[in-house]
Design goal:
Helix content: 40-55%
Radius of gyration: 51 Å
Shape: flat
Largest sheet: 7 strands, mixed
Length: 1469
Amino acid sequence: MADTSSTHEAAGSEGTPRKSILPAFRRFTIALSTILTIKVILELAVTFGYPNALVEELQGASDSALLMVMVMEGRGQIHPTDISPLLDALEGTLHHGIATDVRALFLEYLDIKPGKGQKPKTSLELSSFGRFKIALSTALREQTIQNLGALFEYPRALMDEIRNAKNSALLMTIHMEERGQIQPTDISPLLTALKDLRLYGIALDVEDQFNEHLRITGKMAAFIEELKETCHTLYDKIQPIPYIKEKLYSVDKVFIEVGMEHCDSRGSWKTLSSYRGIFSIAKGTSRIQVIEGDPGYGKSTLALQLVYDWCNEVSDSPFRKPDILIFLNLRHLGGVTSLMEAIEQFLLPQDSVLERQDVEQLITNKNINILVIFDAYDEYPDQHIEDSFVAKILEGQILRHVDVLLTTRSSCIPPACGSRTGRIRLTGFDEGAREQYVRKAVTGDDEAEVQRILEQFNTNPILRDICQAPLFSVMYAHVAHEEEEFHDVRSVTEFFLYMISCFHSHAQNKVSGEKRKQLQRYATNHKKLDKFAFDSLTGANQQLLWDKKILIKKFGADFYGLYVNIGILVEEEVINRNRGATVAEFIQYRTEVHFYHKLFCEWFAACHLAKSVTSFWSLFYNFCKRVNPYDLQFVYRFACGINPAAAKEVIKLVQKKQDGDKFAVLCALEQKDSADDVLNTVRDLVSRDVRISENDTKLLQRTTMQLLELASQKEVPIKCLNLDRSFDSIDKKLAHIALKSGLCLRPIAPLKLLIIRMEATDVSEQELISILDYVGQCDKLVELRFEECNLPVRVPATCVPDGLITRKVKVVHPSGKYHLDLHMGHWGVFEEETIRNLCSNVITIDEDDPPIQQQAMLLVLTNSNRDNVPIKCLNLDRSFDSIDEKLAHIALKSGLCLRPIAPLKLLIIRMEATDVSEQELISILDYVGQCDKLVELRFEECNLPVRVPATCIPDGLITRKVKVVHPSGKYHLDLHMGHWGVFEEETIRNLCSNVITINEDDPPIQQQAMLLVLTNSTRDNVPIKCLNLDRSFDSIDEKLAHIALKSGLCLGPIASLQLLIIRMRATDVPEPEFISVLSYVGQCDKLVELRFEECNLPVSVPATCIPNELISRKVKVVHPSGKYHLDLRVGQWGVFGEETIGNLCSNVITIDKDDPPIQQQAMLLLLTNSTRDNRRVNCLQLDTCMDRVNTADGKVTLKAGLSLPSSPVLRKIEIHEEGVEITEEKMVGLLTYVSKSEKMEELVFNGCVLPVSIPAERIDYSLITRNVKVSCCPDNNVLFNLRSGKLESKTKLPVDVEIRNSDTVASQASTIMQLMVKSADKNPINEVSLCESFSSADSDGLSLVLHSGLCLPRLSLLRKLWIGIEYGREIIADEWTGILNHVKHSQQLKELWVCRCLLPWQDNNTNHGNSTVYWNAGYSFADYTLLSGSWQDEGGQVLTREAYADLVTKFRELYRDTDWQKQRRAKRE
């Protein structure tokens, strides 16, 4: 046996909690698997970015939850010290309740610390080991699991749990880890056990998988260590300002969070509070995240901070979670053809311990969580190569399991990044971030220096806006700290020029003499560098990285040295891996050079471009025509600031490009030119639409406002200003527009059109008035247009500035349909043609219409009323609220009011599911009375009062014969009576000659109209064929003798009514209510029939309560079943059709226990009436309905509680009582009942067992003299001899008797009675076989119960009993004891055979009399004999407990598909 000492040591003594952290974590994982549903599992799989194949495997697994737990552990999403990735994913998928439960479980199970000397496993170990466990579970088969459990001595209960689990292999793996048989560093106990079981093949496979786990763990740890060493050199030498080389910082010492926004699923940009949320906002949507921003906005610094978080495992950063992080600056990757090549060349050290295939195996392993950061895609030389390895990764052609984070300029998003790619936009420094940086990286705790630097920011708004770019802000902060005074700047060009001059001054201050002059010459003469930078940026493939030797050769060593020394050029040493023959040839170092920032390259390129305007016009023109301004925006802007001539041409050319106007504004800010030239530029810009957008930088907004102010000062007409979601409010004190950026916009006199777009914003009345006041100061404004906002319905006319009225300024609503009536302060429609179309058709005011639209329609109505223009129709579609009686106006739900409209012809009021009170209806009629031309008032979808007082109806409606139409469209208001009614004669005649139905679902108005028809018809003595109260009946008002309907209406007696139908679905009608209905019907003089439907009526009513009028008129009262009529003389339901009665009496009258009491009573009444009419009844069949029989008087009581009357006309009774034993007392009582039925000839029993004998003296002698026959079906094989009082068999039983389960109950009963007769006559019985008919046996063994319910009594002269039981059945101990007791008391029984079942194991001296007991469990089993209290086979071998256990296993397996075995397993589960 395997050494299991480690097992016992891990498990501990029973009842003692384990101290190891892993067993506790195992219990947590098992509990976790019970919480996860398949829906949650699939959502988590998508969130974690599992491959499609793995998701499909999870979906189809037999135990998805347990497999998911194993996968999460394998991928590091849960491990014994941290489950935060799982909790984050649950919160991200909005499963907050499950997250709470999981967190509570984790705290509960892991309130255990590692023992002394015990080191918690690293996440790397657990991740790899988890993958090994998943592989192990696929190698374990069911038999292997059972053998291992036995070898490890697992408790029986635990093995049962594993055996019955949906995925027993996974659960076995968990328990082996919990008990120490497998650990992340050792699985020797498992390997030893497999070899002991001679499972050498499985042991070899498992060992190989474990060695692979160890190998991957080691290689992965080495790879991560080498990556971190390389990354450390990247993030630990940040140089905020190039020329100060003695101050290098780690990125975490200078990193400040910049403003961020993320693009949501609708394409809108939303604020992101921290870089820590970069991946959480795009969970499950994309594996690629793009961080974009303008130049200098901190994209690369942010990327390095992410690298720092991973290398140092910063606890609150999500970027510590990837197993592997690969950081690559794309400007180095020109010509690199694969990720593996890039890793070799730029990330692995010269003395790496890893082989190329080791790294390839790791980065292609789909189970390892890998994040690749591609920095500076806009500087990637191969970005235009469609099949570059970077493009393939982004498109998902290779390494689809790898997560990617890419930084780039906003103008250079890779084409492969589709709509599902997550996008993050950097928005730069605000004042808080700027101050935070100064304190953190520049001044430290020197508060005075902090305030000095910030003061320089605040005194120059343009500089402050420029320094929204973190690069500029950082350089400025450090230079300001070094310099006592800082040069004032008005543009980015001035800022950059000054910064470069500071770089040169810093270098010149360190030398003197000829060297100083040389440096001053190089500072101003850099034409070669200018052209070189220009060519590098504008070539076919942008190049931003060069070999040091090439640059020295091109510029000279002195020039090159200066620009490296001041930090504009930066050197980097990289490994150059050449495929040489020797190690020295294979690995060499080379120095690569790049600009400190790409902006410096753009500065020198701009210098070249600015000079080419005059000397190389074609170069300048081709550049501006070919290059998108936003790709190299600072080349354009710097060029405009360097050369005024260039500014004119740049602005002219960029305006022709898409969105060129906005860029032209930025370029205009940079230029230094004469006032006339600037004015011409401004005039050209404002002749187009000028837009200030929310997404514009503060610098661009301020520049645009400067242009507008200049145009205003020079009175240059401004065509249009569009405030695109940038408007915030009106500063009343200054009468300025305050923008969201914090800038203010003064009134602009020459502005012609102002557009204010405020997405989904509610503008208050006061805000609108303030905007109108602002616009009133724009002297040339002719139109104010609002977009995408909600404006107030009106403004006070007194608040509208006079200037707008006198200039007739057009104020346009956001819908574009309405203009503001400046005289009234209302929104309205002013086009004449539109008004005419509205009045000639239908003017609709809908509840869902915005108030502004409703007000416009009211204005149309008011003006048409004033001008007496006919209005065809007004439809108030759910907008009506009430009538203001003081003003006699209609009040709408929106709060608006509608005066009486004289020229209106048709008014429609639609009030969905609304109850209109009587007073409200009268008020509406009063309002309509004031509409002089109105001819019709129509209501829709509301509930009106049933009537209104006729005195309250205005005379004007009566004289004009105004038609008031009910919502149903079927009824009009009788203006003389105030009732709703049907007034067409033909309709009334049709109703009376057919069926008038009043349905429960009919509106009260319709019910009242029908009642009015009934009342008028009664008054006019018009015959009414039928009235159907379809579930509308409620009760009888006994005082008024009226029917009360559920609607509250009342129906008096209808004299001319012929048929009344009352339908009350599933209602129990009590006796008093039924009598009240009969009393009501008694007053309907012409009624001939009353019919009930779908209700439960009383079985009888007192005959004295039935009105005499019904009896004298012979009114027919029909039962809901339609089969019975009420016998008005006795108050009972009966069958009255002569033909029906004749058929029943001449055939069989059946009373079944399932018949409703009313039907049973009808049959009994038929017996009674047949006796009264002396009508012979052929047969009465009592089908399992008999309850008890009184022995003394023979009274038979049915199960329904009814008594069976004795009937002299009854010829035969059949009693069907299947599976029932008729006792002697019951038999005597039935014979007494038969004796009272004078014409009774025969009593037949079916399916029951009669007593073998009863004393003859207890039998009424009249039965003998009348020769009454008592027999048992079928075939009357058994008769009861009334003279002797004994059962007699008419046929001779065969030698061997079979009672089969397939036999009818009657046949079984006949056989049993024949056996009883034979036994009573002392005749021996050779054999009785129970063929699958045996059900059970009482422990005392008095009888054997059959499935039919019949019992086989002890037969004293029976020699052999064979019991063949259903296959697969297991006989329990009590049943077996009962069978043996039955055998013991059967005196002559020699043999008992029990077959096809499983009997209990015998280990005691059971007494079974003189009988020999044989047992055979089935065709493939041996015969056993019960001897000396034990089972023995034919060879005399005793059946041991172990052999019996094997027999049980074989039996259950053989018959596993039988019903008995299925039921057994179901009970266990």
